[in-house]
Amino acid sequence: MGMESKFIWMNGELVPFEKATLHFLTPALHYGVGVFEGIRSYNTPKGPAIFRLREHVERLFASAHVLGFRDIPWTVDDIIKATKDTVRANGFTDCYIRPLIYLDGGGWNLNVDGGKPSFGIAVWEWGNYLGAEALANGIRANISSFTRHHVNVSMTKAKIAGNYVNSVLAKTESVRLGFEEAIMLDPQGYVAECTGENLFVVRRGKIITPSTAPVLEGITRHSIFVIAHDLGYQVLEQPVSRDQLYMADEVFVCGTAAEVIGLSEIDYRKIGDGRSGKITGEIQKAFHEAIRGKTAKYEHWCDYVG
Ligand code: PPE
Question: Is the pTM value of this prediction over 0.85?
Answer without folding.
Answer: yes
